[in-house]
Input
Amino acid sequence: MGRYLNSISPYRKYQAVVTDTYFVDKTALIEELLPALGKEKRYFCITKPRRFGKTVMANMAASFFGKGIDSSDLFQKLKIAGSDHYREHLNQHNVIYIDFSEIPRKCQDYQQYIQRIEEGIIRDLLETYPEVRNDAEEAVWDILT
Output
């Protein structure tokens, strides 16, 4: 488990939401994402106005798919648990989770911020997959490929 790759941060954040008094189960959205897994066009852009739950949805998806922590305790009583593909996908995928709403104190500009994220992702990848050769000049995308 790393800072970005299979982080437990989205689990902790989603756990706080699930246990809230006014929680609304939106895990049916996960069922909508399943057909895209493994396909070339498997990327999603979730857009909504401010305060409409984008972060909660991202935390939900990362908690469900990510390998960072067993999240069955969060999902076993929610709608997604009734899916035929529930166990097949629960905590079975590598997830890179980046929260752009939190800017580290030591980053003075956008370039430093992006560089910090790239270095963190590369570090997480190399810890998880030590057999991957890393050229310092390679971009994150090249390493992922």
In short: The chain has seven helices and no strands. The mean pLDDT is 88. The radius of gyration is 16 Å.
